Amino acid sequence: MSYQRRRRITMTVYVDPDQKATLDRLSKVTRVPSAEYVREGIDIVLTKYKKHLRWAVTHGLR
Length: 62
Fold this sequence. Notes:
Helices cover 61% and strands 0% of the residues. The protein has a domain at 33-62. The model has no long low-confidence stretch (mean pLDDT 87). The chain is mainly α.
């Protein structure tokens, strides 16, 4: 998914030091910003748990 034209907000995320180091290395090697990988990961999780969101809306939870 392309994020180039979307408005973004700031969010603080805590990760393990080894996750940060690996993400930084990946970013350096691929020349893709680490934030792009974080956004992609969020999309993957939201897609994976989409059924839970539908259930929550169906049962009046928001």
